[in-house]
Amino acid sequence: MSNPKSLRVAIAGQQNAGKSTIFNMLTGVRQHVANYPGVTVDKKYGSYQDNEGIVQTVDLPGTYSLTSFSLEERVARNFLLTEQPDVTLDVVDASNLHRSLHLTLQILEMGLPTVLALNMMDVATGRDIRIDREELARRLGIPIVETVGRKGQGREDLRRTIREYDTAKETLTPPVDYGPLETDINAIEADLPASEVLKHVPKRWIALKLLEDDTAVADMLMTKSNKSEIEALLRRVTEQRNTFFQNQGLDVADHIVASREKAIINLLEGVVSGKDPNRPTLTDRVDRFLLNRWGAPVFLVGTVFLIYQVAIVWGYELTTYTWPLLAGFREIVAGVLPSAGFLVDPYTRAMGLWLVDSANTLLNYVPIFLILFSLIAILEDTGYMARIAFILDKILHRFGLHGQSTLPLILGGVFAGGCAVPGVMATKGIPDNRARMATILTVPFMNCLAKVPLYTLLLGIFFVEDKSLMMFYISTMTIIFALLVAKLLTKTVLQGEQTSPFVMELPTYHLPTVTGVARRAFDRTWMYIKKVGTIVVAVAVVVFTLLQFPGLPEERKSHFETRGQAALEVFQKAMNGNQYLSVARQENIVPLVNFYNDFKRAKLNASGAEASRAVNAEFEARNAEFYPLVKPPKGDKDARKASRALKKLASASKSIRREMKEERITNSILGSIGRSLEPLTQFAGFDWKINVALLASFAARESSVATLGVLFQQDADQNATLEERMGSETMAAGATSLLATSMILFFALYPPCLATTVMVKVQTGSYGWMLFSIIFPTILGLLVSSVVYSVGLAMGASGIEAMSVVYFSALALLLLVGLRGGQRRIKLHQIKTAGG
Amino acid sequence: MAPSQPYLAKTLNDLTPGKSVKIIRHRSQGAVRQRLLDLGLMPGAEVTMVRSAPLNDPIELKLEAANVTLRRQEAATIEVQENE
Ligand SMILES: Nc1nc2c(ncn2[C@@H]2O[C@H](COP(=O)(O)OP(=O)(O)OP(=O)(O)O)[C@@H](O)[C@H]2O)c(=O)[nH]1
Ligand SMILES: [Mg+2]
Question: CB neighbours of A579 closer than 8 A, spacing ≥ 6?
């Protein structure tokens, strides 16, 4: 009692039985919960303390049984086999006890000390299902605890039972009698060599698995034991299997399932009562509306529209309130960093602000994501998401995807905005491997929110009249492209991947819980924020560096310095005889210019007369000596004159800085890369500046606009927006709306940002696929853009014309592929039927 | 049992909504078969066809307490017998 004794508990159970809920209930929300993303399925670790010691708990993926057919079953089974938890907590859905017990019996056959949690007792009670818990516990020979995970009921009971059971540790008698197979089982058991592997599991279990033709278990035996001995054994087992089939007219595997089924019927005889499976449940009645032929599309479109309206439209409005917070943060950082020089800023300042700007553009979307992910979590929690998969499976399947691709695609931003990182992450649940791979590789084609700024920018410049039509094209085009690409990939590179059928349970509707929804929304948003905090910042540093180096040659530097000097002399001359001359003395000039710039920027950010007055007061307090020069007091002639001179000086400094920056970027490493790509990208109409922006956007999509901003920078006092600047400059260089269309198309197909490719690596477990996810879209995007631009140019098409042609061609292709697939299937079916 | 006759038997693919049947046997193999069995589509089990999806595929079945969906392609591999 006195020395703390630690325990290891594994939570197993069928899908959607409430394992994770029970896991959270046991370990507590505040407990440290590590999320280890595995290759495709992850186990979640946590722990809690009871009065005897710490209890390590692991939440296993949900499995219907413990064969080696699917990945999640292998993960769960291998854990139980190799880690040997002290107690296995089997969470079962009390409202679906019959089916759940199939897994329970398999766990018991593995000889694992097991505690049963009868979860969802509220649902069972609601359906008038009564379960004689004590009798069932007696028959199974294991303790059973009733729980309602959603309400946290049964926690203490469960914790106590787990602890006490570990001390009791009875030996179990497996309750399944396999009838005519028993002699075979016994024979194999006797033949099994003593071996290090699988020494914890009963030989009976191994024998059963071999009879089931479970290759994973056979392989495990092979690795450690005498090879020829095992091979001989396996041959005997195959013989036994064949003999059994001849004698019984039944596959061994089928017989095993049937025997288990019989055992369960006996177990439940007199234990479960009061249910009436034919009485329609509430879920059945709701589905009569939500899933019928007419109701389903209406409700689905309505849901999608609601999400769009609430998350995207209202979410954007929210960002107007949150943006000042981020802008304020930038000001604070700007204040802490070493102050700006007259012509050249210290590196730490330039880099620091670059980082903050990169991060801020991304963080600006946080409110949208919180709302979006909350709504999606509600869809998941209620059970409607599974119904969407049911409704859309046919269409998605046509193109090589899967009903369960819906969630990843929605997270990725099918309609108007999302993020591919949680989208790719959510592909984990798709059981069909080929469809899963196709989904992983097409989610990045969705409208990630970060693409929106560039679209908005280009539409603002080139498509003022057709803005809404273009926006419609862009937001619906992505899913068309994605479906076509999915089909293409499925028919080519993914052809060899394993597929599995769409067999899915439609869960009972539940009311979502606030904590559940909030946790999932925060988790996914946090994933996004982490992306900003790590990868994007890191890449921003790289891009910054590539844009800075090698820097200006000495003679250009001195050229700019001379010009700066000249501007200073003009200023000093203008200040001659001015009463503020002492304020504008030599060592004050740089701080004065900075003060002026800060003041102007603050004024620009301040909205409303009140805020503007506050800015005045703030700057007056900051430096009362400088203040008259930026805001001359009424009637003070000298101050006005000095202020004018200062303004001139500041603008001279700005325009010299801009020229230096442009020369620096032109000479920079990224600039040379951009130029060296020109021969390749010229067919798409991209000059080196656009290339640089597109390269930079690989860090994070939103950088493209920031980089374009720098490249098309002009003197600040011209006060033109980026739209106008880019418009006038590129138009002057002969750019057209056709070029904009080419850019938009490229951007829509462009590779996923770096963070997403990292997630692709995590989810596919292969660097090869990660590389593919970068290279394939680049080639595809460049190809499409080049064709559109070159052909469009030759035919003299405008941007909107080109876009319309592309859109409707893609749509036609989509319909062609979709309908053809359907016809082939019908034909195939006819041949089959006729053949019979 | 002979492999030449299976297409004569009625399958889960041939049901109209509301119809109840009993599963006789599976034609699928391996992982697919296992998955179907795991979800409770066992020989001998009573199944009711609930509805097909708005686009006709997949279909939704009710068996005991659970509602299970599967594509017609797989439904066509499950032989059934009508009740009564
Ligand atoms: N009514 C009711 N709902 C519950 C109970 N326990 C869990 N749920 C709900 O059931 C759903 C599934 O719960 P999870 O904990 O995600 O199930 P899981 O077993 O971890 O599922 P997988 O990881 O997919 O295998 C969630 O919507 C829960 O809120 C319960 O006791 N009563
Ligand atoms: Mg879970």
Answer: A638
- Statement to judge: residues A183 and A154 lie in one domain: no
Q: How far apart are CA A799 and CA A779, in angstroms?
A: 22
- Indicate whether A405 pLDDT > 60: yes
- How far is it, in rounded angstroms, from Cα A415 to Cα A235? 56
Structural domain ending residue among the three candidates A117, A141, A167: A167
DSSP letters along A799-833, please? HHHHHHHHHHHHHHHHHHHHHHHHHHHHHHHHHHH
Residue boundaries of the structural domains of chain B? 10-82
Contact A188, A241 (CB under 8 A): no
Evaluate if residue A832 carries a pLDDT over 70: no
A236 within a domain of the structure (yes/no): yes
Residue A581 located in a structural domain = yes
Contacts of A391 in chain B (CB under 8 A): 53-55
Domain boundary among A132, A167, A202: A167
**Model confidence band, residue A834 (pLDDT cutoffs 50, 70, 90):** very low
Asked if B74 lies within 8 A of A67 by C-beta distance, the reply is no
User: CA-to-CA distance for A749 and A779, rounded, in angstroms?
Assistant: 9
Lowest mean pLDDT across A2-6, A525-529, A643-647 = A2-6
Contacts of B77 in chain A (CB under 8 A): none
Over residues A55-69, the pLDDT tens digits come to 999 988 888 888 877
**Is B35 at the interface with chain A, CB within 8 A?**
yes
**Confidence label for A36 from pLDDT (cuts 50, 70 and 90):** very low
ipTM reported for the complex surpasses 0.85: yes
Q: How far apart are CA A744 and CA A451, in angstroms?
A: 9
CA A417/CA A836 separation, integer angstroms: 50
Based on the domain organization, do A151 and A217 belong to the same domain? no
Q: Which CATH superfamily is domain B10-82 in?
A: Ferrous iron transport protein A (FeoA) (2.30.30.90)
A70 and chain B in contact, CB less than 8 A: yes
Q: Does the pLDDT value for residue A40 go beyond 50?
A: no
Whether A151 and A26 share a structural domain: yes
Query: Which chain A residue is nearest to residue B59, measuring alpha carbons?
Result: A390
Model confidence at A119: pLDDT above 90: yes
What mean pLDDT do residues A708-734 have?
Answer: 54
* Residues A131 and A190 grouped into a single domain: no
Write out the residue range of the structural domain in which residue A71 sits: 7-167
B29 and B66 Cβ atoms separated by less than 8 Å: no
- Is residue A76 in a domain? yes
Is it the case that residue A657 has pLDDT exceeding 60?
A: yes
Out of B5, B64, B73, name the one closest to residue A98 (CB). Answer: B64
Pick the closest to residue A670 from A533, A540, A532, A531 (CA basis).
A540
User: Which of A103, A390, A499, A833 is the mutation pick for testing B, counting most B CBs within 10 A?
Assistant: A390
The residue with greater pLDDT, A185 or A720, is A185
Distance to chain B for A288, nearest Cα, Å = 9
Q: What is the whole-number distance in angstroms between the Cα of residue B42 and the centre of ligand 2?
A: 26
The domain that contains A241 carries what CATH number? 1.10.287.1770
Closest-CA residue to A175 (of A267, A290, A258)? A267
B57 — contact with chain A (CB < 8 Å)? yes
Q: Which of residues 689-748 of A touch B (CB under 8 A)?
A: none
Q: At A55, which CATH number?
A: 3.40.50.300
* Alpha-carbon span A429 to A41, nearest angstrom: 8
Say whether both A186 and A131 belong to one domain.
Answer: no
How close, in Å, is residue A390 to chain B by CA atoms? 7
Confidence of residue A230 (pLDDT cuts 50, 70, 90): confident
Quick check: A164 contacting B, CB < 8 Å? no
Decide which of A722 and A390 is more confident.
A390
A419-446 residue pLDDT tens: 888 888 888 778 788 999 999 999 999 9
Does A506 contact B68 at a Cβ distance shorter than 8 Å?
Answer: yes
Same domain, A132 and A227: no
Among the partner-chain residues A102, A390, A500, the one whose CB lies closest to the CB of B58 is: A390
**A234 part of a folded domain:** yes
